[in-house]
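Need the bound structure for 6-diazenyl-5-OXO-L-norleucine, inputs here:
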Amino acid sequence: MAENKPGGALDDLIGSLKSAVAPFRATLNELHAKYRDVADGKVADYIPELALADPKWFGISVVTVDGQVFDVGDSGQLFTVQSVSKPFMFGQALEDHGREEVLKKVGVEPTGEAFNAIVLDEQSNRPFNPLVNAGAIATADLIHGKDFADRVKRLLGIFRRYTGREVYIDNAVFMSERTTGHRNRAIAHLMLNFGMVSDRVEESLELYFQECSILVHAHDLAVMGATLANAGVNPLTHELAIEQQYVKDVLSVMFSCGMYDYAGEWAYRVGLPAKSGVGGGICAVVPGRCGIGIFSPPLDARGNSVRGIKVCEELSSRFGLHAFELGFGGQVMDEQFRLRKSR
Ligand code: DON
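Answer from helper R.:
Posting the output first, comments after.
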């Protein structure tokens, strides 16, 4: 191996790479400073454990498909993934059953309603989409496993592949979710009444509460998003997290349904597939380019992170990330990063 003297070719190369990406790191720092004092929004408290989050926590991470990592602020602070888990579970259900079988059990239609709305598509006898609570519970019901322990093991395996590390469930949040989850239990039993879910739905509800209680940080959300951006291959570990053929299914529902009753405006203003959670996380995907992970607990009335939305809106407009920017988004970012796929 060639020796690298100080100021040698390798140092020059590292220096030029660092300066090529430094402007982007500076932009993220600037956005962090710009929005960290925004005091709007309220930390979720309908699950008592979530109310313990510090409203000041604020992390921004971006991971590109060729493995560049940008972590700013509290991007290593753990929090529960909550609804950000839902599209990833939908992906696993597709792998377990195939597209047609899954679509018999859950639709792909936005509701325009709150995430916990008690609305079901009576025409097709299924919940509207996998990203509202009803659809997510029906999706959890589809996750295979020889018994409950095996289903939980598979659940953790999904998130291990996407994040590239072992993940754990926050037991306090899980217990808090399940003891206060009357509305979700009601939705599950309503679906059981209509034959939309199997008779093991009580167990599937537990799996749903477990998936919501998985601990992640903003960096993880960026890696998870980057994995979807990279056709299902984790750009840091190079492990396949989801069969390539289903990546577009997951991204489509994120695009149309990921931000609940803000989904239309999000698609219009930001133009990226994304998913939010009441823990304060947002995972956004710039297909073929990068994943964006943001964590900031105060939420707006729709349950989306206030600072998270502001950062995504500004990143999208500054870097031309909107899917339809100039007809097809992302060129500005391509120029700045000279991106190469890591597959
Ligand atoms: O079902 C619930 O109430 C939560 N565990 C998950 C909700 C959630 O994150 C909705 N997203 N904004």
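Comments: Residues 82-83, 115-116, 133, 177, 184, 212, 276-278, 303 surround 6-diazenyl-5-OXO-L-norleucine (CB under 6 Å). Residues 299 and 306 are 5 Å apart (CA to CA).
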